[in-house]
Amino acid sequence: MNQGPTENGLRWIADAYNISFTLTLSEGLSPYELLRRVGAEERHIVPLTRSAARELLLRDEEDHISDLDFLDWEDEATVAQLASAGFLPAPPDTIVRAGSVAGWAYALEESHCHTGTYIAALSERGRAFCVHRNAKGFSRVDYGCRGDAVTSFEPGLPHLTNGAPAEVALGFAHNGNELGDVAFLGFLEGELGVYLPWEETEAELPAAAFA
Q1: What pLDDT score was predicted for residue 85?
Q2: What percent of the chain has pLDDT over 90?
């Protein structure tokens, strides 16, 4: 998959995670700090690629662990670590994988929006953003600053805003020419200058499972 230059630093996420996704950005945190602030215990954080996380999420509890392509099922220590951390034997509800770029920690979820409920805690050192699209195409943005949840809104539907209007809180107005989440990702590219390399997000990142 060939990615564009830095001006497409975030918008590619909406294509790569075209069914559902959550992107969270938290200023001034490390990936491990981000995961701890959304409820992970450090001893339960394990490195996972995106493909490994998807395998764990999509499996049935009755499936034998030998069906997992990324795992040597005879590696008892690794299997025990994944089990104690909540990745096995039942599939978790969501897996949050976290990395860092240019003064920000970021997190990616394949379908759920676990991180969105922690926007205040994630913003204690500056700003935090959470952009979520669900499988029905509904999108929502949460924004926090210095420990406060400032606003939560659906781009293009201002009557569904909780908190300050997006135009007031962020200077963002959706013109309707793009999907709401894509438009906001583009807005963040310009405002923050953040570029997430696709290759890095596919590789191993610290990950936590949540039921």
Answers
A1: 97
A2: 90
This prediction's pTM = 0.93
- Residue in 87, 115, 146 with CA at minimum distance from that of residue 31: 115
The rounded distance, in Å, linking the Cα atoms of 131 and 140 is 6
Q: Are 154 and 139 in contact (CB under 8 A)?
A: yes
Say how far apart CA 71 and CA 68 lie, in whole Å.
Answer: 6
How many whole angstroms separate alpha carbon 141 and alpha carbon 46?
28
